Amino acid sequence: MSAGGLRVRADSTASRDAQPPPRRRELCRRGIGDPGGGHEEETLADRDRFVGVDEVLAALPATIVQLDGGLRLRLVNRVGAPIFRGPPVLGAHVRDVFDRDVADMIVHLVGVAQESGTASVDFDHGRERFRAAATRLESVPLSLVVFDNVTSWSLAEQALVDLIQDKSSFLDSVSHKLRTPLTAVLGYATLLADTESGPAANLDEATRSSMVQDMTDQAWDLAGIVEDLVTVGRVELGELRMVSVPVNVAANTAQVVESIGAQRSQVGITGDSTITGVGDPARFRQIVRNLLSNALTHGCAPVVVEVFGDGDECGLRVRDRGPGVDAHLIESIFDQYTTGTSAAAPGRIGIGLWISRELTSLMGGRLAYHREGRETVFQVTIPAADT
User: Which residues pair with 76 in a beta bridge?
Assistant: First the structure.
């Protein structure tokens, strides 16, 4: 059942003949919400005579409203609740207490509850989300409406949905990312294995060497992907082990460049080759690999790695001539599963920059992005070694 676009859930299992629990009968006998009690001029302070009841109701996290058959307030426990239009007064009609859309929803909700016993609905009010549940009180023509603020629950639920979607997209991208180098490795390996009667029998040594080099490059790509996936898991679990030793920035960068295959010719290294920082050499190379991969995939050659030292800090800047990160994604480029571009493309996992930032932070450093003229720049800064 719905009203004004709201989906109302009715509990059809409730029975009109069911007896109210003893505590509810006791409250009714004590006069709380008695529709015949002549409470039109009563204020909230008049309920102080019900020793202990106010304290119990006020301690409840939800907002509780009791209405008589004419939809007038007979009890309310949280006068400052944000769903009220103003301070509620006992005896006031719901339309005098709530905004029009909320009042319309309550009228409909109570009507459903009178037929089925209970009913509930989720609704937005301002920037918050509430869940309202109405219950028909037995033996007396009263209704009880309970309002729960479920804003945080809704946000958590949406975050969970987004996470599931991100994970699904992530798994699709990983499958594509792994399949490409695996296909090349298996293809070349199968071809080269048949050296007697297959096509490989007629290949010259230069062609064979080229195939082997391609296989090696693809294998390095696979190793990098697996390393990143393992790192994600260990970082999230807080189980990543790091060492802190001297790291020659230029030498470790050159080692990564040598491993990136045919694209190594598009990368240059400038700066002082003696600059040394402090960190984990293997993790530093992982950062460099991801930044170079990002520049070669999303940017535009040539890619230049500029080694720098600045007092007690040092590091490198990876520059490329690409268009840079889409403006609306700049704040999220270091988030997991973000590729830095609105264009959908298979095989983009979106964890490289996140991993690089996490590893840099664990080494006591920083990773930042900015534009300099027409250049895209990612800068890694780590502590400098004592000289």
Answer: 65
Phi, psi for 184 (deg, rounded to 5): -65, -45
d(CA 319, CA 327): 18
- Nearest residue to 139 (alpha-carbon basis) of 18, 14, 10: 18
Token reading at 8: 């109302």
**pLDDT (tens digit per residue) in 198-221:** 666 778 888 888 888 888 888 888
Backbone angles phi, psi at 123, to 5 degrees: -150, 155
The helix (H) or strand (E) run that includes residue 75 is strand 73-76
Q: Are strands 118-125 and 9-11 parallel, antiparallel or unpaired?
A: antiparallel
What is the rounded distance in angstroms from the CA atom of residue 176 to the CA atom of residue 210?
A: 24
**Beta pairing partners, 319:** 304, 377
Backbone dihedral region for residue 326 (phi beyond 0: left; psi -120 to 50: alpha; all else: beta): beta
pLDDT tens per residue across span 3-28: 444 555 565 444 444 444 444 333 33
Domains of the chain: 2-149 (3.30.450.20), 157-383 (3.30.565.10)
What is the distance in angstroms between the CA of the first residue and the CA of the last residue of the chain? 75
Coil, strand, or helix at residue 246? Answer: strand
